[in-house]
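Researcher: We're teaching a course module on how sequence relates to structure. For the next exercise, students receive a sequence and then see the predicted structure as tokens, so they can try to spot secondary structure elements on their own. Here is the exercise chain.
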Amino acid sequence: MLNLLKQYYFQLLILGLSIFRPNMLFEKINQLNWYKTALKQWIDDQGIIVGSKVLEAGCATGALSVAMTQAGHIVTGVDYSRQMIEHAKSNHKNIEFLEANVLDLPFKSNEFDFVIATSLINIIDNKKLGISELTRCCKQGGEISILVPSTEFNDKDLRSLIDLHKASNFSAATMKAWHQHAPKMEPSDIILLFKQAKLSKIIIKKYLDGMVVSVSGIKPT
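Model: And here is the predicted structure for the students to work with:
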């Protein structure tokens, strides 16, 4: 009974934060080891050269932008939410954070060496335009990589993932909420979007035992 009450408490906490203080919810999620590890593995797999100019679209409170800056990259973070950007700016004044829509990014074409987006393309309606804008801002020969929840991940996989990471309380509730409520995408649909954007050398990788999938591609020269 006590465990059930705990589950309800953390589910309500996540719901309340998502409605009233989404910036604080993201700050809490950014501290979870399984989440930080998955993002680090994804970025490490890109093999980004130190000193590269990187655009993070959908940066939220800026935790990943900060980690990439600390790794020696020149990072610009954008998010549609003014609350997220204000939070990021107030805590990380050495990084450029801008309020912007991924469907109409305020940058010149061919400006960034790498363009990344976490859990962004899956939540916008015009996915084709979103990928097109990310591609436009990327330099020729540069790389675009997105990370989204995968449709191939199911409830049984979730239980195994929670056990694997020995997740409990807020950590387990966050995994469950991400699995149940975040829009998911078929990897094949993402590949089609990348091909429509004329991206080549497309690579798919899975993280968190398949809970999320990354798709990366190169902008032709």
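Model: If you want an answer key for the exercise: The chain has nine helices and seven strands. The domain at 2-218 is CATH 3.40.50.150 (Rossmann fold).
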